[in-house]
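A further point concerns the way the authors explain their paired sequence and structure data. Each protein is reduced to its one-letter sequence and a matching series of backbone shape codes. An entry of this sort, consisting of the sequence and the corresponding backbone structure tokens, reads as follows:
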Amino acid sequence: MNRIAIVSAFFILSLVAPPAARAGDGEAYRKILEAKAPMVVTVKLVLRVQSSLGGGVREANRETLGVVVDPAGLVMLSSRYLGGSKSVVYGGRRIETRSEAADIKVVFGNESSEYEAVVAATDSKLGLGFVQIRNLGDRKRSALDLAGAPEPAIGQEIVCVLRFGRGFDFAPCFGSGRICGEVKTPRRMWAVTGASIRTGLPVFDLEGRTVGVVARQAGSGDGARKAGVFVLPAANVAATVERARKKAADVLRTGMAAKPGDDGAGGAGWGGEEDDDGAGGWEEEAPGKARRGEKQEEK
């Protein structure tokens, strides 16, 4: 093989290969993990599902990850875990299904304590939900900063902070990838490729700045039944967080948890549940697991 062929092969491999560690990257990853892991929490809940077909209420124990977005204990996660309603036609018959999250607990790091939480708000357009911890008291927690986020760039390396489960000490870890494309419909967002991520969590650049938030998004028009996983701009998410913060204050004041679709934010799309058809985007994986999607146990 001549020198030109060797150089050409190396160039092609550099385009298709996953992000490789470069000198100094190890320290950057360590700093991101150390700084961001305290705000990434484990959320445990029971999803109660009821269908118009009858059969009573089914309960599914679910566990996922969330991120603290307010020091007073407001946690953001994928809205898929907080319930909602669906209507499908099967065999000429319309079937209505409604689900609701209950018995929500939040675990910080590898602490033994589990903090009770309630649903504060959901935004089905962005695929994000929020739970408010009730009994945090005067304790303030590290929270995600969405201000001054840089504009994502094609080819940019990004990092997502995750946690293993209780059986592995809730140890923090990271997944990395790259921004591989920009999507403008149904809203502006970025396609990504890489390793393990989780919807509802932020991604950071190698300087530790928030680039955006990972979310499952349905397509528009004829593609509305399909969904992919993308990175939403931090500015869009910041506006949603602010609305959720106001709702969370109402929840703490009145003691009444929000119901799916009951956001009071004056915006269509709040409440409900994202369609779970997967197509495109970055597949969700739990750390150390090969299956798509977060942990789910259902009897």
The mean pLDDT is 79. The longest helix spans residues 234-254.
